[in-house]
């Protein structure tokens, strides 16, 4: 472990990751535009990545770092699917507001 | 490994499904402008049946059985055992049924190449999920299931209902997979490993709280995939808006994929003793979820007017029953393996009867007779075979004695009682009675009610042969599982007992 990283206790990484995760969750719950929703989910996934990378360093174990790379790829794939669905949403409903499509009752 | 074959042979089902998906893309590449509907359905059905045959062959030769020991591959990231093979058999069967049914459902629609390959790729992800032994593989496989599913739900891209369903499924799915991932990262932070067995044996120094939050967040991810409370909101929308074969696929195979995560990850990574001593009692959490899920699903299903939406809520109710398999566990409980095995057997039976029921709805959509109970009135006069098959599915789903659904439910509730969860079994029995009401409404409409008008049934003018074949096959399987239930429950209980 490098000198700088070891001087920061792991709790701080957990706090940072939780803060980023909560910002993302707040965005998911309050934003009505689907594009903002995608960005917020991206924040939540990257919060997990902070944990993976930080604790891979803390435990001296590469698993977490490698998995973070996997997660980045999967997040990109999810955004690609999401953009596709937003595109058909816009074509059918003429909006990117998630509250507008409500043809089926809950 | 048997017969001196290399260990990777144990992954044959997943490899066959992946190869099938690629072969389907190849068929589309060779003749991109032609609608090679039939050749695709044949390739897909042959591929998924080959995967099913490989699974049965591996199980029969004892690969991964308790005696022979599980097959570990890729530095322990993959573990092939009877549990994984059992679930792979469910996935491959449902995939074959859905692919065959898709042949007629999309007959005069768009080019269905994407449908076949996406279903097969999602099935590949499920087969991988069933043998995942590392949280990294679990998450990657889970996304491999989810991403094609989002597209499949929104497959009818000119149809506003389908697009809306796809959007809602995607929103809840993306959110819950982010929560699941954050849960994994917290478990990694507390234990320093992603391999299930290493998580169980890790010493947790003062990070129990982090581990507990991580476990709760992972329960959220499982609840989404299995369509359980509190992440069930997407299910009625997605199942109603999606093309009916996709609803069948999601509610049977995708739900079972969620359960394989619950069964394997929670018992292996967070053993019962550790969960109790560390005060993260996930069994209690699942017990509450099971109780709420089955009650909500069944009572909501009872007030629906549309058959497809009723089936969607009934599928939530059945998720509640299957959750008993992870809820009714206690430290050193005498029936831990039995109750989980019974839940697995229930998921297998459910795979056939629920897929069949949704495929009947697919046939009704193909005919265009309408969506409500009243629209189904008198259908047996025009479609007697399919109506009888639908009656079999309905009574089996309700758990009436002469059908396979009765046995799986009976074993499940009995095992829960043996493990001291009388209240959960009792609640399940009450819910089964409620479910009988709305399932028999369908049968009443089909056989007893008169059509609304003399011309109401004129829509039934086409004979979708492949859809008929899939529905009849599912009905035959539901009935044949009755005499064949012994070997099924024995395999399931042996597989589940190996986890404890």
Automatic annotation (TrEMBL), chain A:
Main location: membrane
Gene Ontology CC terms: membrane
Domain of life: Archaea
A Pfam family of this chain: Oxidored_q2
Location in the cell: Membrane
Alphabetized UniProt keyword annotations: Membrane, Oxidoreductase, Transmembrane, Transmembrane helix, Transport
Gene3D superfamilies: 1.10.287.3510
The EC number(s) this enzyme carries: 1.6.5.9
Transmembrane segments: 12-29, 36-60, 66-90
Keyword Glycoprotein among record annotations: no
Keyword Oxidoreductase in annotation: yes
Membrane topology: Multi-pass membrane protein
A GO term for molecular function: NADH dehydrogenase (quinone) (non-electrogenic) activity
InterPro entries to which the protein is assigned, alphabetical: NADH_UbQ_OxRdtase_chain4L/K (IPR001133), NUOK/Mnh_C1-like (IPR039428)
Enzyme class, UniProt record, top EC level: oxidoreductase
Family that this chain belongs to: Belongs to the complex I subunit 4L family.
UniProt cross-references to HAMAP family, sorted A to Z: NDH1_NuoK
Name of the protein in its database record: NADH-quinone oxidoreductase subunit NuoK
Organism: Halorubrum miltondacostae
Record lineage: Archaea, Methanobacteriati, Methanobacteriota, Stenosarchaea group, Halobacteria
Gene from which this protein is expressed: nuoK
């Amino acid at each position: 472990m490098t000198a700088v990283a070891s001087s920061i206790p792991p709790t701080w990484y957990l706090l940072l990751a939780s803060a980023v995760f909560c910002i993302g969750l707040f965005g998911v719950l309050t934003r009505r535009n689907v594009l903002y929703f995608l960005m917020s989910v991206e924040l939540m996934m990257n919060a997990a990545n902070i944990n993976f990378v930080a604790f891979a360093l803390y435990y001296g174990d590469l698993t977490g770092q490698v998995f973070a790379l996997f997660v980045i790829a999967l997040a990109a794939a999810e955004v690609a699917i999401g953009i596709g669905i937003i595109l058909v949403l816009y074509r059918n409903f003429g909006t990117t507001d998630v509250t507008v499509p409500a043809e089926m009752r809950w | 490994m048997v017969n001196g074959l290399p260990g990777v042979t144990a992954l044959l089902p997943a490899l066959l499904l992946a190869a099938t998906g690629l072969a389907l893309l190849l068929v589309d590449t060779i003749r991109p402008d032609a609608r090679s509907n039939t050749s695709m359905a044949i390739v897909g059905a042959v591929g998924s049946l080959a995967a099913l045959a490989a699974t049965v062959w591996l199980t029969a030769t004892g690969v991964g059985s308790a005696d022979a020991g599980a097959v570990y591959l890729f530095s322990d990231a993959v573990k092939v055992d009877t549990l994984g093979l059992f679930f792979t058999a469910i996935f491959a069967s449902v995939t074959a049924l859905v692919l065959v049914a898709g042949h007629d459902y999309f007959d005069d629609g768009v080019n269905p190449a994407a449908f076949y390959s996406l279903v097969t790729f999602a099935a590949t992800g499920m087969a991988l999920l069933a043998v995942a032994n590392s949280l990294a593989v679990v998450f990657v496989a889970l996304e491999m299931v989810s991403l094609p599913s989002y597209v499949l739900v929104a497959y009818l891209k000119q149809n506003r209902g389908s697009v809306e369903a796809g959007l809602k499924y995607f929103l809840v799915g993306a959110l819950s997979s982010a929560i699941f991932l954050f849960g994994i990262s917290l478990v990694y932070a507390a234990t320093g490993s992603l391999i299930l067995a290493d998580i169980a044996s890790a010493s947790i120094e003062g990070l129990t709280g982090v581990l507990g939050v991580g476990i709760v967040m992972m329960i959220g991810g499982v609840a989404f995939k299995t369509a359980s409370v509190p992440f069930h909101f997407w299910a009625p929308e997605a199942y109603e808006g999606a093309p009916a074969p996709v609803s069948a696929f999601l509610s049977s195979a995708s739900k079972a994929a969620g359960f394989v995560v619950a069964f394997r990850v929670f018992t292996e990574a967070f053993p019962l003793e550790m969960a109790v001593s560390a005060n993260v009692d996930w069994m209690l959490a699942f017990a509450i979820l099971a109780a709420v899920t089955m009650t909500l699903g069944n009572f909501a299903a009872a007030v629906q007017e549309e058959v497809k939406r009723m089936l969607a809520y009934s599928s939530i109710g059945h998720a509640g029953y299957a959750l008993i398999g992870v809820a009714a566990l206690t430290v050193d409980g005498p029936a831990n393996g039995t109750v989980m095995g019974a839940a697995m057997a229930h998921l297998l039976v459910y795979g056939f009867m629920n897929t069949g029921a949704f495929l009947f709805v697919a046939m009704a959509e193909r005919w265009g007779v309408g969506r409500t109970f009243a629209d189904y009135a008198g259908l047996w006069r025009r479609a007697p075979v399919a109506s009888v098959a639908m009656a079999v599915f309905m009574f089996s789903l309700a758990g009436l004695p002469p059908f396979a659904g009765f046995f799986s439910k009976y074993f499940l509730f009995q095992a829960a009682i043996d493990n001291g969860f009388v209240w959960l079994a009792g609640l399940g029995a009450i819910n089964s009675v409620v479910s009988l009401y709305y399932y028999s409404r369908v049968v009443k409409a089909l056989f007893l009610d008169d059509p609304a008008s003399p011309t109401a049934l004129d829509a039934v003018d086409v004979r979708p042969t492949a859809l008929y074949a899939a529905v009849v096959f599912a009905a035959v399987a539901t009935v044949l599982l009755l005499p064949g239930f012994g070997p099924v429950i024995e395999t399931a209980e042996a597989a589940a007992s190996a986890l404890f």
